[in-house]
């Protein structure tokens, strides 16, 4: 408060759903608070010595101090009471919490790392983090755990939804669509109807949530209230995990589950449901979006419904077009007929050859027009076979045509020929791209399997995405294949198998194109070392040759002393077709080392450095700080070699 740090005690504090304190007392514990208040009331100029005040606060700690060598990323306490300290590299160290020999009670422990940050583990196992701040013990805003892991999961899903909706809105109604635009069109969250007005409404609502910390917390609390599994899937995630990292650490199944729960809550929000019944579906002009009292969402052309003994709301026959389920939009008649068939107790094999039995049901929104009530049970059996046979993960009814063999294709073609001219033209058009052309060469995308809308940013940066029977692949503007687009939107490098984001600045790091081989040697000419050279020069040239050898063994394609056409420079290496110079300092002063690197870059000799530290005890943290505080304009990359280990160091 006003530059002063005061120790306080909270008494009977009550917090509302917006995480605002609405009741209770905050009692100051610092000595001299009364005189401070008196001075304030009297308008005096009493000056409080903040340094002595801080010392007083430091003196309040009564426990064991432990100086930790390195930077601490996280401190946790296990069920067995053992303290686990994780450093910035992920290495863990364990500590037993000390016990007072007289009382037998656990004592507080304070860990102070090399950057001055502290973690205090109290006698109850609670961990408090604070950062060095001009000698004061105030909590560093950037280090506070502002959101719980459960909240971060929900926020990550909301950000993901926002990206997907934005991409979908950009291409909706356009045509024809390119391959990557088709990805965006398939990227809409499965619980949302393909209605631009409705998606715009949800997009605006999500954007509003994400722009308010209080609203994010309040919304996440609603999701948590009905979904205890969020705590289960988040229990092994570090509290320091960034929101942007949540999806990758959760895994596909847990991420889908979190998305289902978040989307269900979105569709229950008053601001959204107020417009539901008036929303129309473009490919079903007669259909309205309905939300039943039990929370079920579906499209239907009728305005009345019946309730069965189990409390389920059903429409007669196939008036319901499709329902909104956790796996996306699922055709409701498949669900209804599936239940009917399962109650009959008949079993069947899950094989791709049986799916066509259910084709009489049709697909899309026209199936309700095609069902003959007289053959209800037989077609129900076919529908169930179709649903199960083509199930992909938990989303039944998706990816129709994947796994379609030549014989299946022929039979389908014959059947479609018979149907043509019998009111099945819409059906024919509906599945031509999705099923028939999948065998002919087009790749049928599944947005739940390949979240390809995430490559929107790649296409905007000039990276081309092509789709064929092998899947989705990324190419440079020049046509060079980068690799396969994975489920999480990352690209799997064609040569090394490494997954990366090509727009991430760290992706600019040079990576080896070959497998590691202890017998590999660099191409080109080894640098000669003359006995006439002074000791410093001989040492530097020796390290230059050693660096080249180490990089070759680690799988880098490296040429020593290359000749660069059109240049009068004489670089040390050409590594993966990029020019590098070797620098092997003997000192350990980060300022001097950064200054020497800057000289190489500014002279135009190189913009990439191989830094051999075999003769230096340079601290990596000090070096990183120096480069961060005094960045070198034009520097693109630094690869560090130390004890034959290769570390891509910069860009960070």
Automatic annotation (TrEMBL):
Residues 125-143 have a biased composition (Polar residues). GO terms for molecular function: tRNA-specific ribonuclease activity. Residues 93-143, 508-533 are annotated as: Disordered. InterPro entries: CDI_toxin_Bp1026b-like, CdiA_C. Pfam families: CdiA_C. Residues 569-644 form the tRNA nuclease CdiA C-terminal domain. This is tRNA nuclease CdiA C-terminal domain-containing protein. It comes from Fulvivirga marina.
